[in-house]
Amino acid sequence: MIQVLIFVSVALLVIIGIYLLKKATVFLPLMHNGEPDENKQFLHQFGVFYLILAAIGVLVGIFNLTFFSLFYIFSLLVISAVFTVMFAKKIL
Q: Which end of the chain is more exposed for a tag (fewer CB within 10 A), N or C?
């Protein structure tokens, strides 16, 4: 069951990562704080983070070890929370 959750999260991470890399201009009008180049770099950085997490998730899903699976899910939640907080600061 955890393996299915990991592969679903990998698919979502790939979609979100590619969207942040290719369509960063969609989010730029929402960001009031900072320069446009800085905001674009911010989105690009987290797009790369999400793609790296997706690659790690494929490896974790294939090997299917409980400790690494739970650690991967924990790290995914932490990175997502950091992105959410930093993005909220740029919006408000």
A: N
Cα separation values, 64 from 2, 19, 71, 87, 90, Å = 8, 28, 12, 32, 37
Break the chain into its structural domains and give their ranges.
1-91
Tokens linked to 51? 């793609």
pTM for the model stands at: 0.88
| Counts for the chain of helices (H) and strands (E), in that order | 3, 0
Please name the residue that has the structure tokens 């991967």.
72
pLDDT given for residue 86 in this prediction = 92
Long-range contacts of 53-57 (CB under 8 A, 24+ apart): 53/13, 53/79, 54/10, 54/13, 54/14, 54/17, 57/6, 57/7, 57/9, 57/10, 57/13
